Amino acid sequence: MIQSNRSFFQEYLNELYPDAKCELNYKRDYELLIATVLSAQCTDKQVNKVTAKLFSMYDIFSLKEASQKDIEDIIHPVGTYTKKTKFIIEIANKLVKDHKGRVPNDKEYLKTLPGVGIKTINVVLGNLYNVPGFAVDTHVERVSKRLYIAKTEDNVTIVEQKLMKSFPKDKWVLLHHQFVLFGRYHCKARNPECTNCLMKERCRVGKKKTKSNNNFKRKYTV
Question: DSSP states of the chain as a string?
Answer without folding.
Answer: --HHHHHHHHHHHHHH-TT----S--SSHHHHHHHHHHTTTS-HHHHHHHHHHHHHH--HHHHTT--HHHHHHHHGGGSSHHHHHHHHHHHHHHHHHHHTT---S-HHHHTTSTT--HHHHHHHHHHHH--------HHHHHHHHHTTSS-TT--HHHHHHHHHHHS-GGGHHHHHHHHHHHHHHTS-SSS---TT-TTGGGSHHHHHHHHHHHHHHHHH--
